[in-house]
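Batch manifest, entry 17 of 40.
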Amino acid sequence: MNESDIKSAIVTFDVSEVSKNIDSVLRCFYEMDDGLDMGDKFYKEASKALLERVLKNEEIHLLATEADFLKEQIPNIVKAIEYYNDIRAY
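Output type: structure tokens
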């Protein structure tokens, strides 16, 4: 797949590290830029929802740019990233 075609990613987390670093993980989720400009309250609630999903499932689906941001910000917590362009691709 051409790198420019990659739009999405499955991000797998080290749940034990997430549990130890909840504030850092929440801050990173809050700071991810999805380009939607939905407002402070939305991002706080979305960050909490992402954290709950990670703690329950170890992984979440994100935009590729968001996955790259997390890998840069919390590399010790992100275990793996699988990029894909189509939901049927994985």
